[in-house]
Amino acid sequence: MKLVSYGQPGTERFGIIHPHLAQIIDVNHADSTIPFDLLTFLQTPDWDKVQSLVNNLSTIPASALVNLSSVRLGAPLQHPGQIIAVGLNYRNHAKEGGRNTPFKPMLFGKGINSVTGPFDNVIFHQEVEKLDYEVELGVVIGNRCQKILAKKAYDYILGYTVLNDVSARCAQFSDQQFFRGKSMDTFAPLGPWIITKDEINDPMNLQLTCKVNDQIRQNGNTRDMIFNIPYLLEYISSNITLMPGDIIATGTPDGVGYFNNSLLKKGDIVELEIENIGKIKNKIV
Question: Is the pTM of this model over 0.85?
Answer without folding.
Answer: yes
